[in-house]
Amino acid sequence: MQSEPVVERIGINKDLRSKTMRVHWRVIVLVAIVGTLVFAGSTLGHVRISPKESAAGTIERYTMRVPTERQSPTVRIELEVPGTTTITSIVSASGWKIEEKKDPQGKVSRVTWTGGSIPFAEYKEFVFEAKNPPAETKLEWKVIQIYEDGTRSEWTGPESSRSPASVTTIKAAAPR
Predict the structure, then answer these.
(1) Percentage of residues in the chain with pLDDT exceeding 90?
(2) CB neighbours of 25 closer than 8 A, spacing ≥ 6?
């Protein structure tokens, strides 16, 4: 005589097992989706400066993309210019005032944009040109983003942190 499976002997039928498995899979899928959204949101919410690579010694057109990931609008952006880089021009941004702070040698060391507003879930691009350093290096663009409610996001950390500075790799210029 063949014995009954343990599951059927204790009163659990196949339908209940099937429903339980479906619930488990739904939970797994939901956790995966939420995890993806949280990761994507934290990555996409960062201030980014492009391009990610540029040639040594050249004048490059950089674009700083500033998203607002908080309910309070962004009202101020402060960019610390890497010491080995020389800002050559800053493109005006509609509705924003630009203030340049210079070091003792007269080189722009900080650029601040104020007077405008970037609403929640939107972004604004700010454009500037800079002369790259003459040798291969990495430029760390440290940015402080200030919101209307007074809170701040400081994009000044190492690449692996939760608040990384944007980095541009400067490579040797191609031979002519």
Answers:
(1) 71
(2) none
User: Which contacts (CB < 8 Å, 24+ apart) does range 88-94 have?
Assistant: 88/59, 88/129, 88/130, 88/131, 89/128, 89/129, 90/127, 90/128, 90/129, 91/126, 91/127, 91/128, 93/124, 93/126, 93/127
Mean pLDDT to the nearest integer, 80-93: 97
Least trusted range by pLDDT, from 17-26, 47-56, 110-119: 17-26
Question: In angstroms, what CA-CA distances link 163 with 67, 100, 152, 153, 168?
Answer: 14, 24, 11, 8, 16
Cα 154 to Cα 165: distance, rounded to the nearest angstrom: 8
Position 136 pLDDT exceeds 50: yes
DSSP 107-124: -EEEEEEEEEEE-TT-EE
Burial class (CB in 10 A: 0-12, 13-18, 19+), 147: buried
The answer to whether residues 139 and 21 touch, using CB atoms and an 8 Å cutoff, is no
91: its two tokens: 């493109």
pTM of the model: 0.74
Say what the alpha-carbon torsion angle 37, 161, 76, 128 is, to the nearest 10 degrees: -100
Residue type, position 64, single letter = M
